[in-house]
Description:
This protein is α+β, with helices and mostly antiparallel strands. It has helices at residues 4-9, 16-48, 78-89, 94-113, 175-188, 193-229; strands spanning 2-3, 57-70, 119-130, 133-145, 157-168. α3 crosses α4 (94-113) and α5 runs antiparallel to α6 (193-229). The mean pLDDT is 82.
Amino acid sequence: MSTVRKxxxxxxxxxxxxxxxxxxxxxxxTVAEQQADIFMMEIMDSIKVGxxxxxxxxxxxxxxxxxxxxxxxxxEDIQDTVAGCLDAFLGGNKDVVGGIGKLLSGALNVxxxxxxxxxxxxxKYYILTEGLSAVRFDVKCWYRxxxxxxxxxxxxxxxxxxxxxxIVDLSKxxxxxxxxxxxQQLINSGVTGADIRxxxxxxxEIYNEFQTTVSENTILKGLRKQNSxxxxxxxx
Length: 236
């Protein structure tokens, strides 16, 4: 899948047909940009109320967006395109990121490859670890089919993808629930047993570190409160 910008730049302004194609693609690009903005607002609103109930989050730490042009052959490139985008956007275990890529590209193949409507949208989310952080990766996708056959040499669909990374709120999800959901995702994505055990061990370390930090903060707050209640007598 090439970017819409590349499709626009490939148009020859001196050719009347291609000049018209360029104008139409620029209008579609604007529509896709507006849809990406809507997606970002929806994600931000979701985060304000804690995000999804199964995997609550505290804050958004990174975001990305892609606007792409699709032709009939583009579905063959979805997996490579998704893999390239995820490698650049997500950290952590490469096998886990690759597994997320397989799940996402499979879902997009169905959504984009078999779609027949004029407009459609879908959303997915996945979880992973990055260092000592538990992260939720959200992705929203939208497409608009192009009805004008004269544009088919440039694009048959215009799509936009918005991806975000948010920090999982470990105070609102217990370890057993997170482990269960993460383990199911790892299994479904084809991650091997050794990598699954390694990732789940890391999850436990993240939870232990979080609980230790919470305990230390509680103790510090107690000490500050105690000190603020002490009466200082001059001369002592």
